[in-house]
Every structure is written in C-alpha cells, then in structure tokens.
Amino acid sequence: MENGTLVTTSDLTKRYPMGEGQEIIALDRVNLTFRRGEFSGVVGPSGSGKTTLLNIIGSLDAPTEGSATVLGHRVEELTAKESANLRNHHLGFIFQTYNLLPVYTVFENVEFPLLLLGMSAAERKKRVMEALEWVGLANRHKSRPAQLSGGEGQRVAIARAIVKKPELVLADEPTANLDAENSHNILRIMQNLNEQLNTTFIFSTHDDKVIGYLLRKITLNDGKVSKDKVFGEKGKGNKEQG
Questions:
Q1: How far is CA 177 from CA 99, 133, 143, 153, 183, in A?
Q2: Cβ atoms of 128 and 107 closer than 8 Å
C-alpha cells in the first residue's frame, strides 16, 4: 500500500531496573502510528525516551510491555535472527556518531550493508555510486574517513543508511556534531531523499534546525506523548521552531 502504515506502537512501555527495587520508566504507554513517506521527529529533553523509542522501532531493543509493529512484524516477538533480518533488509540507521570503519574507503563503508544481502558485485557498485551521488560525494569514493570533514562523514553515513533503499530510516540526533551550515546541508539531502524515494524518516532530536524541517513533531515528556502535531507540506518543512 503506497501510503500505508509502517509503524504502530500500542501502549508501548519500557522500564529499566535500577537495583533495590527501583526502576526508570523510559516509555509509558506510548501509542503512535507512522505512515509511509512521513518526515517526522520525536522531540523532547534528554531522558524523555526519544532514543529508546527509536531503538525499539529499529528492533535494537524490546518493550517491557505493549507492542511495536514495524512493517508487519511485532518487534517483541522477533528472534535475534529475525530482528537482524528486519534491520538488514528494510531499515536504515543514522547516528550522531558516524560509525564509519576507518580502515575502509568511503565506497567500502557504504557497500557494507549490501554485502549482507548477497547482492552481486556489479549491482553493489551501481547502488553505492548512486547513493554517493545522492549525497554529493561520488568523487570521494576512494577516500578514507580520516580524510573527510565532519559534514562529509555524516553524508557518507547517510549514503550507507539509504544504499539499500530501505522503507524506513531512523536518525538519532544526526546533526549533533555538525555546525549550522553542514546541518542544513544534511537535512536538505534527507528531505530530498524523502521526496524522491518516498523514504520514511523518523528523527530523534532536540535540535531546532532539525525541527524546522519536520512535517510532524511528536513531543515526549517523561516517556509520555504530550503533543503530536502535523504541519507543513512536503518539501517546505515547517515554520515552528523549538
């Protein structure tokens, strides 16, 4: 379904034990739905549950109670192998630290997710160069991470995240280590990918620059959804900051 539901959470709850019978409630009965092609963000102060929510959607963590359904799969019911298969085939991840492998070239870093899919060398080369074209770094494919600026490193991380053309990209504070100019460049690239490929993006952020591009802003406070606002049109971002 072209504009169908990609992610649904139902009373999603996550608790972390702290010892001596104490616990932290990171998520408290969160109910959300994300549809194909959204450019959304989960915002809120540190400790509000943003990263925990993305980790569960990305099957990197499991809920304590409730459920998260991602592309038809209930995360809490997946085995480790099934979770890895979901991530490898359908999800892309962008973090505030680029996590590039320093001994490999830009091309090899972007190619890595494709090696897990059993793709031919010719198809891998085509996909990698296409992804590097999307982020404007095709001419740096032989460079190593140490030769890149911070903005270029994050662009490589974006290329790696979208090289397999995933249905969903989860971006956790992707501009945290970038200056304003590079942040806007990165955000425009992701905005274009959202428009051209209909890739769904869900951000975790408290960066006003990111928030200015979102078409939907979900606010978490103490693990609960306090606000869920849709605004703007695709390609225009929104006027609200903060």
A1: 13, 23, 21, 11, 9
A2: yes
Per-residue tokens: 160? 């790696």
Q: How far is Cα 191 from Cα 170, in angstroms, rounded to an integer? A: 13
Cα–Cα distance for residue pair 30/16, rounded to 1 Å:
16
Token pair belonging to 142: 């032989």
Domains, the chain, ordered by start: 5-230 (3.40.50.300)
Residue 2 pLDDT grade (very low, low, confident, very high; cuts 50, 70, 90): very low
Query: Of all residues in the chain, what percent carry a pLDDT higher than 90?
Result: 72
The residue-averaged pLDDT of 65-77 equals 95
**Side-chain-facing half-sphere of 110: CA atoms under 13 Å:** 35
Identity (one letter) of the amino acid at 91? L
Beta strands in the chain (DSSP E): 5-19, 22-35, 39-43, 65-70, 73-74, 91-95, 168-172, 200-205, 216-221, 224-230
- The torsion defined by the Cα of 26, 6, 111 and 76, in degrees rounded to 10, comes to 50
